[in-house]
Batch of 3 targets.
Target 1
Amino acid sequence: MARRALVTGATAGIGNSFARELAGRGWNLALVARDVERLESVATELRARHGVEVDVIGADLTTEDGLARAVNRVTDTTRPIDLVVNNAGSSLAGWFGTTDIADEDRQLDLLVRAPMHLMDAAIKAMTGRGHGGIINVASVAAFMPRGVYSAHKAWLVNISRWANWQYADAGVTVTAMCPGFVRTEFHQRADMDISGVPRWMWLKADPTVRATLKDFERGKAVSIPSLRYKLLTLIATYAPTPVVARLAKRGR
Ligand SMILES: NC(=O)c1ccc[n+]([C@@H]2O[C@H](COP(=O)([O-])OP(=O)(O)OC[C@H]3O[C@@H](n4cnc5c(N)ncnc54)[C@H](OP(=O)(O)O)[C@@H]3O)[C@@H](O)[C@H]2O)c1
């Protein structure tokens, strides 16, 4: 029987790449995002191109009822979800302490609370069945203190590492994906100035997603796609504190 994945944030960028890659491999899908029209058009294309089933779930994951709709789809036993990709995300352009705290609350809900609820539902359903997987899209920002966004992603990496060990014997793989800069709508949506980011730092979404799926299949807890970001992460982890502090002051 074809496997089924729920992907949040499937209308654009990394989530859209996950949806396309998984559909190409024959996975049925449940796609979540706010823009239902755009989701429907992704679903129509994937059904026609790959002959897979695609459910569309219009949901703002920062709202109680939006999150509940996504969680209910994960706990639905009639068409079980084998893989949850917690990908939906955004950022604010300003530093914490200068931004509106209501916006920060929504960021916390989207980047931490929603993945936590979806992971909880998925782990309970998947351990009961003895198999399943979760990919949490974090960031290399998790490895360096750079404001609230990096703190949220560090939480996601930390919980993924633990859950990977904790639930491996129950047949559930949990992987944190930690990409560097990826060309998507992310920076434009946050109105960020990315003109200073050198070209070599940019990754493409499709190969980044394929690299993480390979790591996930190998049962890895943390996936850092691309050699250049593996090296940068190593440096960020072991560099002296003053160097890390100087880097932390540059950009968000
Ligand atoms: N791009 C990068 O350089 C980069 C680097 C490291 C990590 N990441 C992480 O990768 C993930 C995906 O980002 P991306 O770069 O692909 O961004 P993107 O191109 O802006 O796509 C974001 C996706 O999330 C959805 N989304 C945003 N807010 C939502 C909400 N409140 N409820 C439901 N869905 C929502 C958007 O759809 P709708 O607008 O239709 O809701 C869209 O499908 C994020 O978690 C981000 O932190 C990105």
Target 2
Amino acid sequence: MPPAPSTSSPKPAVFLDRDDTILNTTPRTALTAAPGDLIDPALVEVLPGAAAAIARLQAAGFTVVVISNQGSVARGLASLAQVELINDTFRKLLRPLPPLPVYYCPFHPKHPGNAFGFPHSWQKPGPGMFFAAAADLDLDLAASYTVGDKVRDLAAGIAAGLRPDRCFLLATTGEHPRLAANPAALPGSVQLCADLPAAADLIVQHSSNM
Ligand SMILES: [Mg+2]
């Protein structure tokens, strides 16, 4: 007998980058080989207001999903187990929120010779992680939003079918001020925003007006 057709409709999501969107990596850059590399779970720190912002998005009906490049694996700086440990650590720090689904890309094309050193559709700005999450979690990409601190975070969402005006670039790292001075470098009508709490406010406000 064929499986019964799903009676649920795809759900809107908010896709969040991890490093410098949910987690503060800025004080860690002196300790790690590259900005954003979080390898020691003792150094995991949730940015102010991020947990409340995620709770606000969930209360508004969004499935919140974490989408993260972790090229440190391909660079030989971290193992998959270390990345998983960081992910488990920040999900515990976000309690009592239920554990967030996390998709991460350990691949990076510039490190041939490493088992993960090749191009992969999951690596942002590619859309692969968005497609995988949408298939796994029954998500409506056209009704979804994304938030990140790098243009590649937003480019990945746009490549997956998100509307550019539903993509938010945060001021938590250097790309926001540079691009604010040169808006032509931004893809489409991407929105600039201070931090995740500010983006969550705009997303909830925008979606309630739909
Ligand atoms: Mg980031």
Target 3
Amino acid sequence: MLITDTGVPERYIDIDDWGGEVMLRLDDGWCAALDRDSMRCTIYEKRPLICREFETGSEDCLEERRGIATAYR
Ligand code: SF4
């Protein structure tokens, strides 16, 4: 969810069922701003606040990484 304006390009913004701005997701649920080849954020300098606060190496991060195999094409 986008709760502050960090400059996320409009093409990556979607509106959820409650009218809130969220990052656009692809059909498989992954963020549209993710480069699937490098697994890097293509808008890193403009990424949403929640992405900035997601701690690398935290339990949530490690849980996501355990399921990362499904992200590769
Ligand atoms: S950090 Fe990840 S989830 Fe956040 S905008 Fe970038 S690719 Fe999307």
